Amino acid sequence: MKHDVQIEVLSELLSQLDAGVNADAGGIRACPAETYTCPDLAKREWEVLFRNQPQMVGMTADLPKPGSFLTTEDFGVPVLLTRDSEGKVRAFLNACRHRGVMVETAEKGEKSRFSCPFHAWTYDATGALIGVPMEDHFGTIDRSCLGLIELPALEQYGFIMVHPDPKGVIDPGVVFEGIAPDLETWNWGRYALGFAQTLDMKMNWKLATDTFGETYHFKRLHRDTLANNFHGDVLSYRSYERNHRMILCMKTIDELRGQPEADWRIENGGFPVYFLFPNVVINVGNQRIAVVRVYADPENPGRSISKISYYFEPSVLAENPGFAQLFSEGFTRIVADEDYAAAETTQRALASGLMKEVIFGRNEPPLHHYHNTFRKALGQEPLPFLG
């Protein structure tokens, strides 16, 4: 984040604290309960938001050097990602061109070749078919036409993106719209992976995303955790076409009062949180980030899976190898045991059919933006203001 932007944000947060105000969405909106419970909507969201949009599959640290590979099925397509000998990230349908068997079942590792366990057809890191056992018995084939099916892939700002459709387009101007100026300054491509975990929860995927969308609950739900270090009811917020940036206010911001603005740093008073459409939340700490990717279950609107990965400035892990585990435990305690636990009760209440809507306050602008962004992608009208 550029220093002039840091000063702008920190000044805004201090002004809000002094005035006793918060970010303002301009009104209160009603969100239909079926947003979280409708099976037909869940299937449509899966096709539009997950199967037909570029998806973040990891960071540069997940493919740390040539010969690294990574597999995923998080959005319904089995994908194999490689970093070839020239350092380029590539993505493929994880399926042999012979009979469709996955050529790699490990989650990640290092390999220069991928061999199908069924008949040992073998491919290199560029997806080229380089080996067919008993080819004279099998019959004449054109190997150049039978490489792994390649998917569009992009590595930028430390993010690795894949499009599930071989004919899909990854436009970085669209993917990172609005937040690119910040992302290019963080240099997360140099970070190392410290820890990763999966949370399988009984709640709609949008409820999981909602928990990262306001500070109104800090003094209440997090009174014994986050409220010790953060001012609740204060928020710097910027929304764009599909993405957004929110800066939470840390209590250490009070120490900046009286200091020259030239010495202000965002990590001394603010905690940036970025939303990358459609399902990624990046929580930015000092020399560390927690990246949350939330996935829907197309068959069950009352279930979601959160993949959380923790990345660090390498020197942090070198100096304190146990810090990644400690940080992840603290993050999980707040997100899983407080935020997600509360959201699971919301899911049960909405599933009863007795609540027709939930309410987003004017002090919860990210929730307005999340849902109107999703609704626009689905061809729906924006959520209405009440009154």
Features:
387 residues; alpha+beta; Naphthalene 1,2-dioxygenase Alpha Subunit, Chain A, domain 1; Rieske Iron-sulfur Protein; 26% helix
Structural summary, described in words:
It is a single chain. The chain has helices at residues 3-19, 34-37, 39-50, 135-138, 172-175, 180-186, 205-210, 314-319, 323-351, 365-377, and strands spanning 29-32, 55-59, 68-72, 79-83, 89-93, 108-110, 113-115, 122-124, 129-131, 150-151, 153-156, 159-162, 192-201, 230-239, 244-250, 270-276, 280-285, 288-296, 304-312, 357-360. With 387 residues, it is an alpha+beta fold. The protein folds into 2 domains: 3-52 and 174-377, Alpha-Beta Complex (Naphthalene 1,2-dioxygenase Alpha Subunit, Chain A, domain 1); 55-169, Rieske Iron-sulfur Protein. The protein has a 7-stranded antiparallel beta sheet, with helices on both faces. It has a 5-stranded antiparallel beta sheet with strand order 6-3-4-5-10, with no helix packed on it. Strand 7 (113-115) and strand 8 (122-124) form a beta hairpin.
